[in-house]
Design a protein that fits this description.
With about 190 residues, this protein is of the alpha/beta class. The protein has helices spanning about 5-10, 30-40, 55-65, 80-90, 100-115, 125-140, 155-165, 180-190; strands spanning about 45-50, 70-75, 90-95, 115-120, 150, 170. The strands form two sheets. Strands 3-2-1-4 form a four-stranded parallel β-sheet, sandwiched between helices. Strands 5-6 form a two-stranded parallel ribbon. Strand 2 (about 70-75), helix 4 and strand 3 form a beta-alpha-beta unit. It comes from Macrostomum lignano. Its EC number is 4.3.1.17, 4.3.1.18, 5.1.1.18. Belongs to the serine/threonine dehydratase family.
């Protein structure tokens, strides 16, 4: 999509927007979740993930379509508006404390007890390669791109788009949530010795 208003504010640049909020579950997360489930190894009774909303919804939708059991671990302070869609797609919702270590603990326990395949929201090759379809579509739809700006939270979308697009120049994230920039800076310092 384009916007003449935003174009007029961008110093003569033509801007293109990939409107992932129009996906079935409201975000790009569906691409990675579905790809991970389609590539899931045999022998599992279903899938499990921890999520505050979008990944859980996407995984539940994909699991429902593939007739798989889906468990989503959510912090106990997750808004009902995020939980309801997961349940409507057939997910079992399991609550945990609102911190990363408890999310992982409950998720790992469910995976072990019920033979569920863990599908993290961003640090999983099949999830990242599913998100890469965003970059592939950008290249096909607008081959004359000079740069690609990608919002960063967990990094799965940015990693996928980077894989698909040699034109990627920057990742965008809120200044108050600079985890991606900080992690790159730490990695570069550690790699330099």
């Amino acid at each position: 999509m384009t916007s003449s208003l935003l174009d007029s504010m961008s110093n003569g640049r033509r801007l293109y927007f990939k409107c992932e909020h129009l996906q079935r579950t409201g975000s790009f997360k569906l691409r990675g979740a579905l790809n991970a489930l389609l590539r899931m190894p045999q022998g599992y009774a279903g899938v499990v993930a921890h999520s505050s909303g979008n990944h859980g919804q996407a995984l539940a939708w994909a699991a429902d379509r593939l007739r798989l059991v889906c468990c989503v671990v959510v912090p106990n302070d997750t808004p009902a508006a995020k939980i309801q869609p997961m349940r409507s797609y057939g997910a079992e919702v399991h609550f945990c404390q609102p911190n990363y270590s408890d999310r992982r603990r409950v998720c790992d326990r469910l995976a072990a007890e019920r033979r569920l395949y863990p599908v993290p929201s961003s640090d999983h090759w099949d999830v990242i390669s599913g998100q890469a379809s965003v970059g592939l579509e950008l290249i096909e739809q607008v081959p004359e791109l000079d740069a690609v700006l990608v919002p960063v939270c967990g990094g799965g979308l940015a990693a996928g788009v980077a894989l698909a697009s040699a034109t990627m120049s920057k990742a965008a994230e809120p200044a108050s949530a600079s985890a991606a920039r900080s992690s790159v800076r730490v990695y570069c310092v550690e790699a330099a010795g």
